[in-house]
Amino acid sequence: MMTDAAKTSLTGDRGRSGAPRSAKSANAISTSVLLGPALLLCGVFIVVPAILAIFGSFFDFGITSQNWEFVGLGNYGRAASDPVFWIALRNNLIIVVGSIILQVGVGTILAAILDRGLPSGSTIFRTIIFAPMVVSSVAIAIIWLVILDPNVGALNAVIKQIGLTPPALGWLGDPNIAIWMILIIAMWQFTGFMMVLILAGLQGIPKELYEAASLDGARGLKAFWYITLPSIRNILIVAVLITTIGGFKVFDLIYATTQGGPANATQVLGTYIYQQAFNLGNMGYADAISVVLLLIAVALGWLQLQISRRA
Amino acid sequence: MGSRFRFVNVVLYGAVSLWSLFVLLPLVWMVIASSKTRREIFLDPLGLPAQFRLDAFERAWSVGMGTFLFNSAIITFFSVIVIVVVSGMAAYVLARSDNKWMQLVYLMIVAGFAVPVQAVLVPLFQMVSEAGMLNSRAAIVLPYAAYGVPFTTILFYAFFLDFPRELEEAARLDGCGRLQIFFRIILPLSGPAIASAAIFQAVFIWNEFVLALLMLTKPALKTLPVGILQLTGEFTADWPAIMAGLSIAVLPILLIFILAQKYFVRSLAGLGK
């Protein structure tokens, strides 16, 4: 294999293997043909915008304005003293922590039940619970928008039927409730995804492990605690990371329900970047917030790949 | 022991059934609400309609649901093809090279996986708009493809590492170049990896919202996620029409999912690996 001419690389450090010159250049050409499009696409649409976001964050400029005014770290200073930026970051953290508890927590329980608890019917339940994952977040947002509507919504109708009073400002109109509703909608959509992810890990646990534990008297919840959870530790970490990344990236759901309102109560970094850039025209400031989001996402993404490689 | 076993089963079935009901009810409500009249949904949000009607579907369809469906389908189709071919080619070269620089290239593509589109939205929009690529179905395929490449390359890379090399050797002895080997031997034998990658990216692109919102603003070019958001503005109090529009958007993808759920689940669960 090592002397294989066709494996000779671009730098030619294995060119001494005696490959004919023409084969070497043909190889270089085929390498660029095969690798070029991927590098071009990623370079133009991922790397260049990322660099431009960092660059732009040091300037003040509008959507159409040609004059960029250098402001140094001004946009970052502005973020640090902007209460809405901190509200947005806090909301992202609420969504991250809440989603980890609800989605990964409930997902793990459901996965454990589907894996070993049910004599039959697992596939049907799995299909139903996973289904929202393939539906667009915008469609889900609007369905819930109508369900939570104060006038025609199903939730208020149910609440009134059992004799309780729904919130006067509406489920999404009350600044103290809205973010929790967002959390519930996200849970409705993604818990099935977490369940399937964890289920794949559970199915890899050798049955002998449970049999041995059963002989030692560990069944049911005990087996879940001492066998199941430790065996899927890495998958659980990956699930937490995916949920964390998703919690920082959240946009569609909030844009289509509350647009960050009422009074910024559901504002997150994603919607705030959009608002600053495309509604208010503060492109440089939006770039600075983008860089914060970029750094968080890259750090978490890196962590995810490191751990999932070991899983 | 016997009765205890049954009791546990009831609790476990109860738990998954309850969650399934929680998932199903909003979708069922959507379909029921779409066949009601405006009056019915206002007076009795929970009840069934007096008679099953389809006129809300007609009203929703007249806004251009057909156009949105078509745009989403064609953009998803071409984006997925570009992603599969481009990532496949790159992953093949990278998986067959143990050169240090190539490993670095692989790591850089992998790093691209971590960059969310929301974090580069502002410069991306400026670039696309400067290049005159706004309001073009062909142009939006390019960023969609770019953001699909890193994950798909990781997926194919792992697949090609396990791919038997004897076939490639034989083809090479027959005088095939690398491009020929890739397109005639590797790609046709990569069915499972291609299916996994294609389903994953198709679901993602079919539902993609923010880029479509910014890049395709003409009504005739809008995709489904952006189009259905327009429904709420179009029909201010016509809830049945909004729910009918959502049903048109949601039910086909759910049907495809149910028919091919095994492949969907396998493909999307791959994110954990």
What topology emerges from the helices and strands here?
The complex is a heterodimer of chains A (311) and B (273).
Chain A lengths: L20 H36 L2 E2 L8 E2 L3 H7 L2 H35 L4 H9 L6 H11 L6 H8 L16 H25 L4 H9 L4 H12 L1 H17 L2 H6 L11 H11 L3 H28 L1
Antiparallel strand pairs in A: 1-2
Chain B lengths: L1 H33 L3 H6 L11 H41 L4 H13 L8 H10 L6 H25 L4 H8 L4 H9 L4 H17 L2 H6 L8 H11 L4 H21 L1 H9 L4
Helix pairs in contact in B: 1-12, 3-6, 3-9, 3-11, 3-12, 4-6, 6-9, 7-8, 9-13, 11-12
Provide tags for this entry:
heterodimer; A: 311 residues; mainly alpha; MetI-like fold; two-stranded antiparallel ribbon; 13 helices; 2 strands; 1% strand; disordered N terminus; B: 273 residues; globular
Number of domain modules of chain B: 1
What is the CATH homology-level superfamily of chain B?
A: MetI-like
How widely separated are the two ends of chain B? 39 Å
What oligomeric arrangement do these chains adopt?
A: heterodimer
CATH homologous superfamily designation of the largest domain in chain A: MetI-like
How many E-type strands of chain A?
2
Largest beta-sheet characterization of chain A: 2 strands, antiparallel
Uncertain regions spanning at least 5 consecutive residues of chain B: none
* Alpha-carbon Rg of chain A, integer: 26 Å
Number of strands of chain B: 0
Biggest sheet layout of chain B: none
Helix content of chain A: 55-70%
What count of helical segments of chain B does DSSP give?
13
Q: Give the CATH class of the largest domain in chain A.
A: Mainly Alpha
Specify the overall morphology of chain A.
globular
Q: How does the helix and strand content of chain A classify structurally?
A: mainly alpha
Compute the number of structural domains of chain A.
Answer: 2
Enumerate how many helices of chain A there are, as a single number: 13
CATH fold-type name of chain B = MetI-like fold
